[in-house]
Amino acid sequence: MSPGAGADLREIDRALGVRFRDRSLCRVALTHRSYAFEQGLDVNNERLEFLGDAVLGLVVTDMAYREFPEMSEGELAKLRAAIVNMGALAEVARDLGLGRFVLLGKGEEMSGGRDKASILADVLEALLGAIYLDRGLETARRLIERLFRPRMVAYVRGEGERDYKTILQELAASELRTLPEYQISERGPDHEKEFTATVYLAGEALGTGRGRSKKEAEQQAAHEAYRRLSERQAEG
Q1: Is 53 among the residues known to form the active site?
Q2: Which residue out of 49, 53, 122, 218 is catalytically annotated?
C-alpha cells in the first residue's frame, strides 16, 4: 500500500490548519489520475484542481491589489506570476508535507511522483478547491493568505531569487499562446566554463544571458526576454 493510501486524512487537517467536514472531498483532492485509473475509480482530482486554481488566482490577485496600491497593472501581473506558478506551489506543498498523502498509481510511485512538482502543485490546488466547496471562500482565503502572503511580501522586498524563467513562461503562455525555448552553448575548460543561453519565443530570439551555470545563463536570458516583452505590451 502506498503512503497516500494508508494515510490518516485527519493529518491533512493538521497540515493545513483546516478541518474538513466532508472527508470524501479531501480524498478526491488527493487522488491522482494514475491511481484512479488503476483502481477503476470514476473520479480524480483534476476537476477540483481546476476549481482550486481559480480560487487561488482570485485570492492572490485580490491580495496583491490591496496590499500594493502603488503597483501598476503590469507589476501586479508580474507579482502574481512569481507567486502562483508550478514551482512556487510545489514548494508550498513540500513545506506542508503533502507528498506523503497523494494517492498515486504504481508507475507514478516508482518514478518519484510523490515529489514531482507538477503533481504536488496540482494536489495543492485541488485541496484548495475542496476547501472552497467544503468550508467556503472565507476559509479558503484565510489559508491562502497564510501560505502565500509571506512569499509575496518577500518577493516585493527583493528577497530571494526572482524566477524569471517561470515568470516568462507564464506571460508567454497567456499572451502569445506559446512557450519559451532555450538554446545553450558553452566554452572554456571544465573548471572555468561559461554558458550562453538564448531564449526564443515563436522562433524569435528575445533574450541572451551568460553565466557560470546553465541555470544562471537561462535566468538572465529569461529576464531580458521578459523585459522586452513587457515593453512591447506597454507600447501596444
Answers
A1: yes
A2: 53
**Given this structure, which CATH class describes domain 7-156?**
mainly alpha
Cα–Cα distance measured from residue 131 to residue 124, given in angstroms and rounded to the nearest whole number: 11
Exactly one of 125, 134, 163, 218 is catalytic; which is it?
Answer: 125
pTM (global) more than 0.90: no
The predicted pLDDT at position 3 comes to 47
Q: Does residue 95 carry a catalytic annotation?
A: no
For the chain, what are the domain ranges? 7-156, 164-235
| Residue 22: closest CA among 108, 133, 126, 115 | 133
How many residues are given for the chain?
236
* DSSP codes joined into one string, 10-51: HHHHHHHT---S-HHHHHHHTB-HHHHHHHT-S--SHHHHHH
Q: What is the pLDDT of residue 153?
A: 83
Asked if the 164-235 domain carries CATH number 3.30.160.20, the reply is yes
Rounded Cα distance between 140 and 55, Å, is 8
Alpha-carbon span 103 to 220, nearest angstrom: 38
Of the given ranges (19-33, 123-137, 186-200), which has the lowest mean pLDDT? Answer: 186-200
Whole-number pLDDT of residue 160: 52
